[in-house]
Amino acid sequence: MSTVAHEHDHHHAPTGLKRWIFSTNHKDIGTLYLIFSLMMFFIGGAMAMIIRAELFQPGLQFVDPQFYNSMVTVHALIMIFGAVMPAGVGLANWMIPLMIGAPDMALPRMNNMSFWILPFGFALLISTLFMNGGGPAGGWTMYPPLVLQLGDAFPFLIFTVHILGVSSIMGAINIIATVFNMRAPGMTLMKMPLFVWTWVITAFLLIASLPVLAGAVTMLLTDKYFGTSFFNAAGGGDPVLFQHIFWFFGHPEVYILALPAFGIVSTIIPTFARKPLFGYASMVYATASIAILSFFVWAHHMFTVGMPIKGELFFMYATMLIAVPTGVKVFNWMATMWKGAMTFEAPMLFSIAFVILFTIGGFSGLMLGITPVDFQYHDTYFVVAHFHYVLLTGAVFSLMAAAYYWLPKWTGYMYDEKLAKIHFWLSTIAANVLFFPQHFLGLAGMPRRIPDYNIVFADFNMISSIGGFAYGISQLLFVYIVIKCALGGKKAKAQAWEGAKGLEWTVPSPAPFHTFETPPKLTKSMLEN
Amino acid sequence: MLQISYIYTVKKIFTLNYLSIAKRESMTSIFKKIIQALALVTLPISVFAEWGLNMREGVTPISQKVYDMHMVSLWVVTIIGIVVFGIMFWSIFHHRKSRGVKPAKFSHSTTVEIIWTAIPLLIIIGLAIPATKLLIEMDDTSDTALTVKAVGYQWKWKYEYLEDDLTIYSNLDEKSVELSQRVDSVDPMEHPDYLLDVDEPLVLPTNTKIRILTTANDVIHAWWVPDLGWKRDAIPGFINDNWTMINEPGTYRGQCAEICGKGHGYMPIVVKAVSMDEYKTWVAEKKQSQEAAAAASNKEMSMEELMTKGEAVYKANCLACHQANGQGVQGVFPALAGSEIATKAENLKTHITHIIYGKNLMPAFGEQLNDGDIAAVTTYERNAWGNDTGDMVQAADVAAERK
Description:
The complex is a heterodimer of chains A (529) and B (403).
Chain A: H1 2-11, H2 16-21, H3 26-54, H4 65-100, H5 108-127, H6 153-181, H7 194-225, H8 239-273, H9 280-293, H10 309-321, H11 323-337, H12 346-369, H13 371-377, H14 381-411, H15 417-444, H16 458-487, H17 524-527
Helix pairs in contact in A: 3-4, 3-5, 3-16, 4-5, 4-6, 4-8, 4-14, 5-6, 6-7, 7-8, 7-9, 8-11, 8-12, 8-14, 9-11, 11-12, 12-14, 12-15, 14-15, 14-16, 15-16
Chain B: H1 2-13, H2 30-41, H3 45-48, H4 61-94, H5 110-139, E1 146-153, E2 156-161, E3 166-170, H6 174-179, E4 202-205, E5 210-216, E6 221-225, E7 230-234, E8 240-244, E9 250-255, E10 268-274, H7 276-297, H8 303-317, H9 319-322, H10 340-343, H11 348-357, H12 371-383, H13 395-401
Parallel strand pairs in B: 1-5, 4-10
Antiparallel strand pairs in B: 1-2, 2-3, 5-8, 6-7, 9-10
């Protein structure tokens, strides 16, 4: 019986639409996640282009302020929940079983479901833009009472958040179950590739934080439709309570986006420096401490709500403390490069840019953590610049690095290195032209989330918009490179990169439909960190 | 030489500070702007300093300290950045395969790991100490001589001078309202204080410790004037406590800093700091003129008077939602032009009560507008944009609807 099933799998791999809809294969589901996130990246990106076009010069040119607000809101929701998170889960799906020598994810059917509810979630979200009253427009943070003023979009927004949360929690459970149960013999926890470590920790963050968000939005729902007053001062509630609950999710969420990026960069830098990762153990501990600390700093997102001074001091100290483990990571990456024999293929370029630009975002983060000065920075373009440095030139750059790094494994072909380098330079220059001037705008006094502004802000906004358009257009090149690579090119070897270590490089390129059906035997060199 | 003249030219184009803004030619050509923007990228820092690159030092003792703290942390991270990125680039340059280097094998060193954990820890302790002191100072709202309650509304501010028993409403100025419409015929470049000006600024005395309470009427807003050195959320149902002491007379501009709906970008805050004597005179005059206006509002007005006054009231209070053409925003803010309520005679009372008491998203204006204002705006809405009902509403009609 089992032999028959086995044969079936090997020789009659599912084809056509059914292959994708009913897939329980971690590689196919990983591919689905990655393609989906790329599509969302462009939809969210198109909204960013609308925002930058409107801000190109003072005055209202293209959109109504209400629509502008919904662009700001939906751009954030799509980029966070639709682009970066699914891309991370897609990479985890593809790479974790290959990295730990497992035949597939532990819970393949749940894997299928966690992906396939995503498109429905985002269809709901995007459909709200066409509803009576327009799309969600109170910012992605959904603060009441403003969010309760939404029209027909409101229940759809809440349901979307629930769906995305369910999807992410299922993905997280799957990753934890896989890593804890399906590692090849000999691969102890402290021998796992760092990417796997960062994902396990991320998965715990997801499980701990997303139900909190689900609770918060459900309370919004009952406040609006069932007469509760959780967040309504007139009924004895407190609007700030929502902010506390939201950011108790929201801050770990920041690290849900960033930790897998740390894992990616920690995988790529050693490969191209041809030198083992410096301080593996301290990397694991630093990641874990960042994750734990991330549950104790949430109120730094809301210093201006007027907390008691003791609370403000506690959250200031805790926030500043995060700089320590984050610094350890940056220093470890530098030490990995130190005295290596580096080459600079696209994954390495994106990783180095990640280290530098993420650190710049970390610097502004440290400044924002200083409470008395945050009273000036808060809710200005300084914050916008900060989180785009950590999320775009941070998280998104690491995803680009990962895509170039593993494309040979996924497609069996090498991507076009020359085009990829052009893509890198265009993206890096454009992203800095886009976001660096926003620091100045914020310091000069421009609040965030405004559709129109005084002429003093005109010039930096124009520069920023030019950078934005350039960044947007450059990403089309990425799509071209990926498609070109999928269709053909130079054949990739099993070990596509000279300095690459790890089990994923022991299977052929492209990785066969089924891998590690029997656990691999680990050699000593494979396990050195 | 070439470089200098180049900078001079660009500087001339870009003298984009508050002072010379009025002289600045209106530049509508997008092409021209792109050229400018590209030229900017190559400019040296000294030129940038002119147009608000950095945080403002402000005009209060606290804002100065906040600025200093900002500069300290900025320098700390800049120096760390130079050192860290410097070492990294040195490594990138020297430790490359193309130079024929062989990779080293080391992968940990407890000593350096302890060092680079300890040093950042010391740096953040060094930053945390002055930050704590400053925060404690900012938190001390004792011994204030004057209290102003700032109440955020969608989308305006109400200021209550608690000791002086005076209330004013501060709306976006009329010129900005006109220029912010989405039509091609207006150019916001014409107005130096576009979106940063109001009809009634908050007048405050200088050299006086003033307590500023923030709260809101509908959704969360945030009260922010950069020159005062802080912002604070205005939260419905809760009151936040802050203080300021302005050293220099002058006009200081800021904006609402918490997204509060469609008009979030259109509710500036303007503080006018004057000497204590001038402040007292202003309070007395303001009270007098408010009483006079209240008295005048009860008199009968002609159609023409009603329409003129109504249009002004409409622009300041209604236009943000119902739009200049009375068409509203589909699905959110109902149109008034041709609407049942604004045209049918039997709905006249409903029309007035909607304005007084509000409905759904619409706030109650009964408290902000006197009977004459409401009468005028009702008349205006019933006769503008082709509604042409011919209805005239007088202050007495409004007074009759107030409970």
